[in-house]
Specification:
Blueprint lengths: L4 E4 L3 H10 L3 E4 L5 H6 L7 E4 L8 E3 L3 E5 L4 H6 L1 H6 L1 H8 L4 H6 L2 H5 L6 H4 L41 H7 L3 E6 L2 E6 H4 L18 E8 L6 E7 L10 E10 L2 E10 L6 E2 L1 H7 L6 H11 L12 H17 L5
Helix pairs in contact: 5-9, 11-12, 12-13
The structure holds iron/sulfur cluster (SF4).
């Protein structure tokens, strides 16, 4: 058993100061990921800073966006009436993740920070550049069935496991953080990282920075949305591939599209070129197939995840068909 210090934070500034001073301090919210990592010896904190009593548990209507506090649970986000009416895509994505028990505990901030489920990351007897920089990547020549087809590096081919993050990427969420140097807002596109030469870094947070809220800017995507998650079993499994689709359709023409995929990259993967292709096109399966081929440009598979080169575009086409209403479940 590794010893650690437990600190209950009563206000955010002291929590941030405490975290900034200690490189092995971790914030504790729902604990659904961190406690597992501690039990397996993947994360060995010197200090846990319990942030559950900080005032970040509200969903508030702002003039430009809906503000979701970092401590709102995934269940409360998915079932919130404002979320369901303004951002149904987010509700669908969250309900596709984990189990009801986990969603009742897991928080928005924790979900944004969720670590990869690469099995080599969890097995402390195996090489893993993310867990132990410089030790190598067990997955590169190993069992890489769940791994990335976009944006990987020779250092790491892991994927971000979150469903919520994929929908947030499609919705252009903005992450608010408080840190030793003050507060800042990070567009979600800049929040998660590609692995590059530093796969140990999942995101662009600086030491001591604490997520306080996420803004969801209002969009016209309240009707034609879908989140399709393809996985090995129908519940409580991570995505092989997933697709978050939001369409704004008028008289059968796509005025605007937002597309993001999960299970394919180290960060939720936005498909901007395919979005541009769909703009102004009629709703049709043919256009959706063309968009999915465009979306796959640059994809690269490894020994055991070749199937994703077919599964990913098929996931996107089916999600587009569901969102537009030309297919039903
Ligand atoms: Fe570690 Fe990334 Fe390689 Fe998995 S893919 S073993 S997380 S370095």
């Amino acid at each position: 058993m590794n010893q650690f210090q437990y600190n209950k934070a009563n206000e955010s500034l002291s929590a941030v100061k405490l975290a900034a001073k200690d490189p092995n301090a971790h914030f504790l919210a729902g604990g659904t990921n961190l406690i597992d990592l501690m039990k397996m010896g993947v994360v060995i904190p010197s200090k846990l800073i319990d942030i559950n009593h900080l005032p970040f548990s509200k969903i508030e209507k702002m003039p430009h966006a809906l503000r979701v506090g970092a401590l709102v649970t995934n269940s409360d986000v998915a079932e919130n009436d404002l979320i369901k009416s303004h951002f149904p895509l987010l509700s669908l994505a969250i309900n596709a993740g984990a189990s009801p028990q986990l969603r009742n505990m897991a928080t928005v901030g924790g979900n944004l920070m969720q670590r990869t489920r690469c099995p080599y990351f969890f097995d402390t007897t195996m090489p893993c550049n993310k867990r132990s920089p410089g030790s190598g990547c067990g997955a590169l020549e190993g069992i890489n069935r769940m791994h990335a087809i976009f944006g990987a590096s020779e250092q790491c081919i892991a994927v971000n496991p979150s469903d919520m993050n994929v929908a947030m990427r499609a919705l252009d969420a903005v992450v608010h953080v408080s840190g030793p140097k003050g507060e800042r807002a990070i567009p979600i596109a800049d929040f998660h990282r590609l692995p590059g030469n530093h796969p140990e870094l999942d995101n662009t947070l600086q030491k001591g920075e604490l997520i306080t809220a996420v803004d969801l800017p209002y969009t016209p995507f309240t009707k034609n949305v879908y989140y399709l998650k393809v996985r090995d079993r129908s519940s409580y499994a991570f995505a092989l591939t997933s697709a978050a689709v939001a369409l704004y359709i008028e008289n059968g023409t796509i005025k605007e599209a937002r597309l993001a995929m999960g299970g394919v990259a180290h960060k939720p993967w936005r498909l901007t070129i395919a979005e541009e292709f769909l703009k102004g096109k009629a709703v049709s399966e043919d256009h959706f197939k063309q968009a999915s081929q465009i979306a796959m440009q640059g994809a690269k598979a490894y020994q055991y995840n070749q199937f994703k080169l077919k599964l990913a575009p098929n996931t996107l086409v089916q999600s587009l068909k569901m969102a537009s209403g030309i297919a039903s479940s």
